[in-house]
Amino acid sequence: MLHPALDVNLLSAQNGLYTAKFFTQTLDHFNYNPQSYQTFQQRYLINDTYWGGAKNNAPIFVYMGNEGDIEWFAQNTGFMFETAPYFKALLVFIEHRYYGKSFPFGGNEEVADANTTTVGYMSSTQALADYATLIIDLKNNLSATDSPVVVVGGSYGGMLAAWFRMKYPHVAIGALASSAPILQFLDLVSPYTYTDIITQDYKSESENCYKVIKGSWKQIEDTAQKPGGLEQLRKSFRICKHYISAGALVYWLQMALGSAAMTDYPTPSVFLAPLPAYPVRKACTELIMPLGANNEGSMFPPYKWKLRDVEFYCKRVYHIQPRPHWITTEFGGHDIKRVLKRSGSNIIFFNGLRDPWSGGGVLKNISETIVAIVAKEGAHHVDLRFSTTEDPEWLKDIRKREIKIIANWISQYYQDLLNQ
Questions:
Q1: Looking at the 3D structure of the chain, how many domains does it have?
Q2: For residue 255, what is the DSSP state?
Q3: Which of the listed residues 278, 296, 318 is the one where a domain comes to its end?
Q4: C-alpha span between 161 and 64 (Å, rounded)
Q5: Domain shared by 155 and 65, yes or no
Q6: Is 355 an annotated catalytic residue?
Q7: Is residue 154 part of a domain?
Q8: EC number(s) per UniProt (predicted)?
Q9: What sign does the dihedral 248-72-98-96 (CA atoms) show?
Q10: Same domain, yes or no, for 15 and 133?
Q11: Which one of 286, 318, 350 terminates a domain?
């Protein structure tokens, strides 16, 4: 039923995965002052190899770009390429504003990042409006106004996909939101969920590994306080910088351990790309996601998450006042089951329980059409990756289930189209 696994490196080298194009995008979709009407070039990638065409109202699958270069996400989203032949789908990957080659203000990253005024146009609501505007324009240009659109995304992109379906149901008939922690916000889940899941990942593999990591933080602290201790740590961890602090080393190790848990895939892979400059800026505006460690069983040193610490950091570094409740105000979160059951439809939430972000994900069905698919051994949007011959049966079954659900959405759309 699916296309054989593609050699992503070969196809990328030959530009066979996609063609890069640019769309003239509006800077500010929500105001009417002169500055709002400025434009910038937004990059998107397109693949029409298997598209059934506008005359057949063949579907369009759109990837909601997240915090990075869109080519990297396209090259790691094999699910779309492998299902395109079956659905006869057009594939589109849209880059998020302020990332990759999609910077406003003349495409100059330094100018776009210069101050709070220029950076103020980087938000999830602006990004969603970008996607809606581009999709509608693309469909018009292709004479494909009746082609159904399914949006796809992973991680922050998965959050965007779910929110897009909620906010723009007239543009997309459904969303596949993989590893989307839409509940990882204030007062929705415990701030310790993330580190507790990482701890459980390591503990389940090796009790000794867990104990070694848990005891390492004090050893690092003790070594750092000795004469020449920091230099010893620098050499032990092969750190290139000539000077390090114990705090910076601990933070780096915690991030590395978290990334390893997040990408605990059942087959070998290379996924997490080098981050763009200042990736945490959005974490200082609207994506205020509490993360801490305060459990005696946690392998991480105790850390109590405090909003005032975040506010102090964001003001000092970026001169930004965070809005911790904006996301849940704009998109919801409280009583999400009751609200979405009444007002939403056609969303797949995939979560792998080895992924620390799954603690902020939707883990139970909300309705017959808002479905949670949970994999006990799954990691961060593993379902979207290119398939391999080594994939376990549970992963194959999950992808088949997602394909079946999407096929039902499209079938129902065509039926509704006939009945108009």
A1: 2
A2: H
A3: 318
A4: 6
A5: yes
A6: yes
A7: yes
A8: 3.4.16.2
A9: negative
A10: yes
A11: 318
Give CA–CA dist 199/217, Å, rounded.
14
> Residue 62: beta bridge partners?
92, 151
Largest separation between any pair of C-alpha atoms in the chain: 80
CATH for 95: 3.40.50.1820
- Spell out where 203-303 has E strands: none
pLDDT digits (tens, 9 = 90+) for 122-172: 999 999 999 999 999 999 999 999 999 999 999 999 999 999 999 999 999
Clarify whether residues 73 and 91 are in a common domain: yes
* Bridge pairing between strands 370-375 and 347-352: parallel
Nearest-angstrom CA–CA distance, 301 and 74: 36
How far apart CA 325 and CA 330 sit, in angstroms, is 9
How far from 199 is each of 211, 255, 289, 374, CA to CA, in Å?
10, 13, 19, 19
**H or E segment to which residue 400 belongs:** helix 393-418
**Among 355, 358, 381, 387, the one annotated catalytic:** 355
| 345 lies in some domain | yes
pLDDT digits (tens, 9 = 90+) for 262-301: 888 877 665 555 444 434 567 888 999 999 998 788 999 9
Q: How does pLDDT run across 112-124, given as a tens digit for each residue? A: 888 888 889 999 9
Q: Whose CA is closest to 176, among 145, 140, 150? A: 150
Q: Can you tell me the distance from the alpha carbon of 367 to that of 342, in angstroms, rounded to the nearest whole number?
A: 9
Out of 102, 124, 147, 155, which one is annotated catalytic? 155
Question: Is 326 within a domain?
Answer: no
User: How far apart (Å, rounded) are the C-alpha atoms in residues 131 and 162?
Assistant: 13
> Do residues 378 and 351 lie in contact, with contact meaning Cβ atoms separated by under 8 Å?
yes
Range of the domain at 297: 193-318
What is the average pLDDT score of the chain?
Answer: 91
Q: Is 155 one of the catalytic residues?
A: yes
Query: Does residue 268 share a domain with residue 180?
Result: no
The answer to whether residues 261 and 400 belong to one domain is: no
Q: Shortest CA distance to 127 belongs to which of 73, 72, 63?
A: 63
Active-site position among 96, 178, 358, 380: 380
Instruction: Indicate if 187 belongs to the active site.
Output: no
